[in-house]
Amino acid sequence: MNRIKSQLPILSPIIAIASALLVGAILIIIAGVNPIAAYAALFQESLFDYFGFGNTLTRMTPLLFTSLGVLIALKAGQFNIGGEGQIYLGALGSTMVGLYVQVPAFIHVPLGLFVGFLFGAVWGWIPGYLKAIRGVNEVITTLLLNYIAINLVSYLVQNPLKAANAPSPYSPLIAKSAQLPILPGNLTHSGILLGLLVAGILWVLLQHTPLGYQITAVGLNPIASAYAGISVQRTIMLVMALAGGLAGMAGSCEVMGLKYRLFEQVSPGYGFDAIAIAFLSRGSVLGVLLTSLFFAALRSGANVMQRSAGVPVTVVFAIQGLTVLFIAIGLALESKRS
Q1: For the packed helices 314-337 and 2-30, what is the interaxial angle rounded to 10 degrees?
Q2: Residue 120 contacts by C-beta under 8 Å, 6 or more apart in sequence?
Q3: Which of 134, 168, 50, 149 has its CA nearest to residue 93?
Q4: C-alpha torsion sign, points 115, 120, 123, 127
Q5: pLDDT, tens digit, 9 for 90 and up, residues 278-291
């Protein structure tokens, strides 16, 4: 019995994804399409086709960064719902560096990433400060800050940052020296390598450092942590700033590695997908990597599934939503057992 219980954190995400795909298959059948053919088209294109896999990795990059941000906040018992706004702020910071700073590429690229991280970190620190010092619920503040960030970027690309003669709201192209290098074979940009490196650093931080122990301790029991001499307030502000900074780097990679300019809709909802990915990962950095890949594959292969099998793209979004629903059911059942 204890053995089964210890395997539940590993099994729950797998069961949730399998259940979502099963219900998705029913929706595909209702649409009059063979679900095996539809899923074959989706995953063949997104995982086993060279250029399709490159597209999957490109989409995985912002999901990975933002999910890691949500994960580290969860480790400290904080809910960062503001990844979307932090992506927009990071994208804005990197765009400003790409447009208004002129330095060699070996300085320009790291500077653009750093400023993107910094903008996102400030946007994450604000709700962290309000929670730690003022006791304001971080779910509310991070959610509301999303709207401020999105509308701020919208205003800027429609007015002072708008490119000359642009048919729709977007900024001028950033300098070539601020653009992320492309991997050999035009597979994807180097942001994915940076994301994997950050994931490794975060794993070491959480598993093998005193700071990681403090973050975990605060998440498990802030009162006991305070008695043990850990500054709970400082830890909350730190993890929320780190969470925002990681999401900010997602925005940086979108601008510096993919779009090369700031668009009004720079993110298609990566910040909200990241919440589901972090919960599915059950506190595991490796789980974030695998689940980010799964969600990116769904997004990457959706259009191909529609073209080749005639399945609407909305089925993919339904599968994502069902995955979240099933993992929520699994969490509820686990808490009931305990």
Answers
A1: 150
A2: 86, 87, 89, 90, 93, 244, 245, 246, 247, 248, 249, 251
A3: 149
A4: negative
A5: 988 888 899 899 99
| Domains of the chain, earliest start first | 2-337 (1.10.3470)
pLDDT grade, residue 4 (50/70/90)? very low
- Tokens 């700073």 — which residue? 101
d(CA 201, CA 212): 11
Would the pTM of this model clear 0.90, i.e. be above it?
yes
- Secondary structure in 3-state letters for the chain: CHHHHHHHHHHHHHHHHHHHHHHHHHHHHHCCCCHHHHHHHHHHHHHHCHHHHHHHHHHHHHHHHHHHHHHHHHHCCCCCCCHHHHHHHHHHHHHHHHHHCCCCHHHHHHHHHHHHHHHHHHHHHHHHHHHHHHCCCHHHHHHHHHHHHHHHHHHHHHCCCCCCCCCCCECCCCCHHHCCCECHHHCCECHHHHHHHHHHHHHHHHHHCHHHHHHHHHHHCHHHHHHCCCCHHHHHHHHHHHHHHHHHHHHHHHHHHHHCCCECCCCCCHHHHHHHHHHHHCCCHHHHHHHHHHHHHHHHHHHHHHHHHCCCCHHHHHHHHHHHHHHHHHHHHHHHHC
How far from chain centre, in Å, is Cα 228?
Answer: 33
Distance CA 114, CA 119 (A): 9
* 93-96 contacts at long range (C-beta below 8 A, 24 or more positions apart): 93/118, 93/119, 93/120, 93/248, 93/251, 93/252, 94/174, 94/178, 94/251, 94/252, 94/255, 94/256, 95/161, 95/171, 95/174, 95/255, 95/261, 95/262
Average pLDDT score, the chain: 91
Rg (CA), the chain: 20
Instruction: Calculate mean pLDDT across residues 87-106.
Output: 97
